[in-house]
Write a structure and sequence with these properties.
By secondary structure, the protein is of the alpha+beta class. The protein has helices at 30-48, 64-85, 183-215, 219-225, 227-256, 260-266, 279-287, 329-336, 339-346, 351-360, 405-409, 411-426, and strands at 15-17, 22-24, 104-111, 117-124, 128-133, 136-143, 148-149, 155-157, 162-164, 169-171, 176-178, 311-314, 385-388, 394-395, 401-402. The protein has twelve helices and 15 strands. Strands 5-6-7 form a three-stranded antiparallel β-sheet, with no helix packed on it. A two-stranded antiparallel ribbon has the order 1-2. It has a two-stranded antiparallel sheet with strand order 3-4. Helix 1 packs across helix 5. Keywords: Acyltransferase, Lipoprotein, Membrane, Palmitate, Transferase, Transmembrane, Transmembrane helix.
Length: 427
């Protein structure tokens, strides 16, 4: 079977085309709506307005510049839209496992069915930690989905299901998250669309004025002569409230070095903006810095993960009476050395039957004291506890031991680890 590439097994909600060369958000179909909203008005403008303005200037060929500028403006907007929506916005690769350097183990006391206290190791994992940014402490959160601590200004997009660096927002009109690697192109796309709207609106109004002068009529007659100009003026006026307002808002965000996410979430908190470096430096950071390369190689072949240890042994510190453990442990070791006996032990339903089976087969070590049944199986400090990723084996409060079939199939490995551990403890 041929190895798969990263984009083929990607856990996010993104869509890939051209063999992983282009990445889009899950709502990439909205791009077709955006394209129609841009291309259709420009076609109407070129066909019904710019074409009639070619001969309205003293120089015959200068009128063609109106048509050429409209086409170039449109191409520029479409290219910026493509760069915004089809590139990695700054996705942080997921971890396959939680960061083990952050693990903290602690022992908590729990009571079993017989009321005896037993210590069980539990995992302590901090959900936040502090990092230093410009001399100030900033808390970063742990992402359970990506199993990593998010860098400052990073957030997890619920639509794309990815953690994105310098997350600004998820834009449905471009079908992509806006983050560190495409924010510059997003702002240029919005601002270019604003200028295109102003251009089309202005020339449509100019054509109405030309009609009024040519036909020596009123505005109403000119509008009846070119209804397409009226429609374009109304469309551009409405569009300017959106793209123009968005341009002004992002100019403010760039000048103060904020993201849309930070502005909406922390605006009422009165927090100090540790990223603000002054208006000029903030603009230089967005427009004059090199775009960082992507952290992901979507066309790379998936590398098989190195096998992790099948099981790890967790034991609590031995108490003083455990140091002379030659009284009962050899008996348990002999039982665990034989695969068939392990199967029989797993089928026992109470400790008394287990003790009878042990006595009936004879022992090389001292006899077991029946008054202490928990010393064989129920006590964590008498026998090592096996922790497996599969988590199919469990102790029941009734004292029975249930083992899944896949665990029994690997019983040789488990038994060998138990044997080695027990020998080391005896030494």
């Amino acid at each position: 079977m041929a190895p798969k590439r990263v984009y083929q097994v990607w856990k996010g909600s993104n869509k890939f085309i051209f063999g992983g060369r282009l990445i889009f958000g899950p709502d990439a179909r909205s791009l077709f709506v955006t394209l129609l909203l841009i291309i259709v008005p420009v076609i109407i403008f070129c066909a019904f307005v710019a074409r009639h303005l070619r001969h309205q200037f003293s120089s015959y060929n200068s009128g063609y510049a109106i048509l050429a500028v409209a086409i170039l403006f449109t191409i520029n907007v479409l290219v910026l839209l493509f760069l915004t929506s089809s590139r990695d916005p700054g996705i942080i690769p997921r971890n396959l496992h939680p960061p083990e350097e952050e693990f903290r183990y602690d022992s908590s006391v729990s009571a079993d069915a017989g009321g005896a206290g037993r210590q069980t190791p539990s995992l302590q994992f901090p959900r936040t930690k502090e990092v230093m940014v410009n001399g100030l402490n900033v808390k970063v959160k742990y992402c359970e989905t990506c199993m990593l601590y998010r860098p400052p200004r990073c957030s997890h997009c619920s639509i794309c299901n990815n953690c994105v660096e310098r997350f600004d927002h998820h834009c449905p009109w471009v079908g992509q998250c806006i983050g560190l690697r495409n924010y510059r192109y997003f702002f240029m796309f919005v601002s270019s669309a604003t200028m295109l709207c102003i251009y089309v609106f202005s020339l449509s109004a100019f054509y109405i004025k030309v009609l009024m002068d040519n036909y020596d009529g009123t505005v109403w007659k000119a509008m009846k002569e070119s209804p397409s100009s009226v429609i374009l003026m109304a469309y551009c006026f409405i569009s300017l409230w959106f793209v123009g307002g968005l341009t002004g808002f992002h100019l403010y965000l760039i000048g103060t070095n904020q993201t849309t996410y930070e502005n909406f979430r922390y605006r009422a908190d009165g927090r100090i903006n540790v990223f603000n470096r002054g208006c000029l430096n903030n603009f230089l950071e967005v427009f004059c810095t090199k775009v960082k390369p992507s952290r992901n190689n979507f066309r790379a072949f998936v590398q098989e993960e190195a096998p992790r240890p099948m099981a790890s042994v967790i034991t609590r510190e031995r108490e003083p009476d455990d140091m002379g453990g030659g009284d009962r442990r050899p008996k348990v070791e002999d039982d665990l050395d034989i695969g068939e006996d392990l199967l029989k032990i797993s089928q026992r339903r109470n400790i008394e039957e287990l003790e009878e089976d042990i006595r009936g087969r004879g022992s090389n070590g001292p006899p077991h004291n029946p008054s202490e049944p928990d010393s064989i199986l129920s006590s964590d400090h008498r026998a090592p506890t096996i922790r497996s990723d599969a988590r199919h084996s469990s102790w029941e409060r009734s004292g029975s031991w249930e083992i899944a079939q896949e665990v029994l199939a690997n019983s040789n490995v488990t038994e060998s680890r138990n044997y080695v551990t027990s020998k080391e403890m005896r030494l």
